[in-house]
Amino acid sequence: MAGSRSKPGVSARTLTESSGEQAHRRRVTAAIGLAGFTSFSLMYGTQPVLPQMAEHFALSPAQASLSVSAGTFAMALALIPMSLISDRFGRAPLMRTGLLVAVVFSVLSGLMSDYDWLLWCRLGVGFAVATVPAAGLAHLGDELAPVRRAKAIGVYIAANAVGGMAGRIVAALVTQWLHWRAGILAQGLMGMLAVWLFWRLLPPARHFVPRRPAPARLLRNLRCLLADPVLPWLFVLPFLTMGAFVGVYNYVGFLLSGPAFGWGPAAVGSLFLIYAVGSASSTWAGRQVLTHGGQTLMMRMCAVMIGGLLITLWPHAVWVIAGLAMFTFGFFVIHARASAAIAERAGIRRGLASALYLSSYYLGGSVVGSSVGWPWGHGGWPSVVVALTACMAAAWGTLKLAGFRR
Q1: Burial, 280: exposed, middle or buried (Cβ in 10 Å; 0-12, 13-18, 19+)?
Q2: What b/e sequence results for 296-327 when a residue is b if at least 16 CB atoms lie within 10 Å of its CB, and e otherwise?
Q3: Which of 255, 258, 335 is nearest to 343 (CA)?
Q4: Among 102, 241, 327, 365, whose Cα sits 20 to 30 Å from the Cα of 75?
Q5: pLDDT digits over 296-331, tens only?
Q6: Residues 6+ away with beta carbon under 8 Å from 259
Q7: Among candidates 249, 285, 32, 248, which has minimal Cα distance to 134?
Q8: What is the Cα–Cα distance from 314 to 316, expressed in whole angstroms?
Q9: Global pTM?
Q10: How many angstroms separate the CA atoms of 403 and 406, rounded?
């Protein structure tokens, strides 16, 4: 039949769906998006209240930023082990358990009177939340046809942006009215509701096939991934881009709450509405993934991010906000496109490839995000901009060396 003709190499599953398959796809996409929303709302819970935490515990900005880096560091270390567990026991059970544990640690971190114990709780949040990126993208790969997958990944990353924005704004607003501890606790309550919805929404897996952990196979797959001419560069890229992204948002709160601007917690928290730009840009990138050259697009976005950083040097809040919007737009386009490229090139090894990509992503957020404390302490915001501009220039060079088009 004319209506059923397909392109060579494209299975019928990629082109036609029954009503049941459509409902399953929509529930899977929505549930994984909700998981992304929840994980990001919990992971960066302390970021909008870093100035208040620093004052409460008598910390330097760099020390306070460890409450963010602790979670991202734990996530980076846990991703590959969690991906192996998900291969063996299933993606859905792992994500359900992980999000529940993450909510518990998030609430506990708001109750700790000792900063060291608070850091341990944030480590627990990161370790538990790692179940979502370790299993979520692989679950989309299992359950959705390739032609549907890129858009679903765009939805997932957009949900990350919305979750990060919502969690930070809730914490900031409650901090303005009450206390920074109450802000973190409010995040935890929002997370409880989201986890309950996720448990109800996620349907049973239809295409998951369990695999036993095999160290020899893991090493073989790792060698295959690293032998690819493009993938190793895509594993380096997120270390630089995510590191710059976390660094900007860790320290812009200190800039805007300082004497030059004098913003309160609610005003600083409202800054994270810029994440809506990231949500829109990642969804746009998901739609454009099949029609735009990936290398050119991402290199242009590196330039956009650098331009945004430079604009924030202008000593006026409007320009700081505009620069952050540019920076955020570019970051989420790069992340969405790179995530899709990883899934495309890795094939059956996409679970391990996604884990390697995201380990680098969160390790960069941890290492670079806290390391920016040194230039902040020695030269303030202009030094932060110089350091992160160099970071993004290195990301541009990484993409140039990757040499891929799609």
Answers
A1: middle
A2: ebbbbbbebbbebbebbeeeeeeebbbbbbbb
A3: 335
A4: 327
A5: 788 888 999 999 999 999 988 899 999 999 999 999
A6: none
A7: 32
A8: 6
A9: 0.77
A10: 10
